[in-house]
Amino acid sequence: MLTYKLFQTGHCTHNAKIALKGESSYEMKFPAMVALLKHPLKGYILFDTGYTERFYEETAKFPFSLYAKITPVYVKAEDTILAQLEKENIHAADIRYIFLSHFHADHMCGLKDFPNSVFVCSKEAFQSIKNKKGIRAAKSAYIPNLLPNDFEDRVLFIEDAKIAPVGNHTRNIISEVFQKPLYDLWGDGSCLAINLSGHAKGQFGLIFENDSKETVFLVADSVWRSTAFRENRPPNNIAYLIMDNVKEYKENFEKIVRLHKLQKEIKIIPSHCEEPFQ
Question: What is the tally of structural domains in the chain?
């Protein structure tokens, strides 16, 4: 069994009617969520690292300044995941693993704050960004300077993990809906990773059971709001301009909608929704 806690690490804003079909036009807030998991043997694991003030430094000049203009970001020193963990007497050295859902700045700004952690990510995702610089990187919402220089020395690739066998009723439903392998990260069935590409190449979500025997599904940016999957309200077509693969995004969005209808007990948590914090 795992325990977990969610943190808001700053936020960005965008027009609500673009992010959510049928919504009126107003400035919507998108918190950058980080989850802290505690595994009985593996210790502390972070799901993403959110924003830090490093974002402002790296987007001060063109072409990455375009990123900051499209999605204005608000983060203070005390909002960073490192600062919030320190308040709970959890230090950088205590974080053994960082699961990186994908390589967008709002998910990886804090990577350099954890010099001893092992990174867990998709090989496909890493290969897609590792040689990108300048305009090509900015188009992918990837900021190369946010990646630690020794990243490749400290990474475990999700695709190298064993595929989880048929499991309990909930796991079987997820497998049936997505028709994709579930990667068993630690070999004990406690943390299962699933490919949710579309928004970004090689984006992965994470599935685990908490100490209340509740199935939690961290879906990263495969949906942006809980309202979206509850009411089947995908983004406005304009939003697809920033997607890596629109077809894959739509397919995964529809599968999350279907999963929620079939199994409402699964706690689906998008990375940019305010509801989990309310």
Answer: 1
